[in-house]
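One record is set out below.
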Amino acid sequence: MKKLFLPFSLALTVLLGACEKEVTGIKLPESDAKLVVNSFISPQDTAWRVTLYQSVPTLGVREPTSSGVAGALVTVTDGNQTVTLPNQGDALYELPTSDFPVVAGRTYTLRVQAPDGKTVEAACTVPGAPEDFGLVIDSLPDANGARTRYYLRLNWTDAGGQENYYRLAGEIRREWKEVPANAPPTLYPLSINWEGETFLDDKGKDGQTMYSPKGELWALGPGSTNTRVYLQASLLHTDRHYYQYHLSARNAIRNRDNPFAEPTLVYSNVTGGLGIFAAYNRTTFSMQLR
């Protein structure tokens, strides 16, 4: 066996060595930086806000991080009026909605021309507010009365004859009164724990009453006299772009630490570049719990 092993090892070494060959002359595809636009609009917003960056190329010489693009021409039009969003420094472009309101049902087109001549464009339509929006809430104090558990569920009527997309949001705010009495209260925001999917669509429920999954939250009991507790539960009626972008971004974040997960492309509706220009309409139910 020893006599056979040595020649076999020598042959294997020669064979593997022959497999090593330096490859030259391969031309890799060029990868140029692209403009990256990010903007979400809503009738409840106080300003139009657009951020503009350059992407980081996968190949070639590149900067370690993306950089903001200043000095671009950023315009928005509804087909009748066109406004320019002034550059507020670096990547941010902003204009008060008092100068150009965001109106439900209107389609807006965003156009960007960078100083180097690159141009991108995107469009979105602002959804209307959901009809018959309501909230059902119940409470259950714990055994010693120190805390109270609240349960809530949102309901609304879906607009028939069209595709609709929704997102749940909300929080409770605890305002702790400081001493002295004239000091501003300290705020403690806590998110609502939704026992189900927070992104919803109306597939199979067109024109019907829709219900959110149950939401759960805790608040200090009545023995804590220095604290006021407020609830804000919101329903966002979103367009398809908003819905698909946030779902794809969430999936990409969830998969980034899994070496066996397939790559997830983040949704983009920007022609000539990357990014998102999307709309939503927020309806909020507010009440003081204690």
Q: What stands out?
A: Residues 2-19 form the longest helix (18 residues).
